[in-house]
Amino acid sequence: MIKTLFFDLGNVLIDFDHKLMWKQMAKACDAPIDHLKDVIIGSHLWKRYEVGALTKEDFLEELDSLLEKPLNKEKFLLAASDIFFENKQMIELLKRLHKMPFEIFLISNTCDIHFEHIKKKFPIFDMFNGLILSFEVSMRKPSIDIFSYALAKTSSKPAECLFIDDLIEHIDAASSLGIKTHHFRNIENLEDDMKKMGIVL
């Protein structure tokens, strides 16, 4: 019997557009997209930021230095964050599940720039028993450590937990600990899988 639900955030509960993010950030930085990707990804700047190794201020200062040109920080923050869209069907499902006797946790690779924006735009976080955010716990999916950390937050056994995520490498990591998983594609497939696991919606 499933007692605990672990949800991913991006492209599960809330949709986002990576292409739009890079386009907007490149415009805000007045830099070609490929160069900006080299700077942010090649230097592992974003990964370090997502695990809390850098504060927002550290991230912006280092980016400014790597770009070798003045960065309009306010414009960049908006460009990086204004990329999220509500998945109405999934939010409605979350509301239904919240009324049922489940523990519900969020496990998300994110940074404070994104999470601050999402919290203001989507008032859904009071429906969770806990938020496991990479920048707060200094771990990212698909590390086994973040799933072990999540399991320690609940009294449920791994086989009593269901993890829902859109990336297969995250699914594989959770499965290796005995957590039941659903590789998210759409709400119809998720609801079908939930019914097979005995979750009556």
From TrEMBL:
<dbReference type="InterPro" id="IPR036412">
    <property type="entry name" value="HAD-like_sf"/>
</dbReference>
<dbReference type="InterPro" id="IPR006439">
    <property type="entry name" value="HAD-SF_hydro_IA"/>
</dbReference>
<dbReference type="InterPro" id="IPR023198">
    <property type="entry name" value="PGP-like_dom2"/>
</dbReference>
<dbReference type="Pfam" id="PF00702">
    <property type="entry name" value="Hydrolase"/>
</dbReference>
<dbReference type="InterPro" id="IPR023214">
    <property type="entry name" value="HAD_sf"/>
</dbReference>
<protein>
    <recommendedName>
        <fullName>HAD family phosphatase</fullName>
    </recommendedName>
</protein>
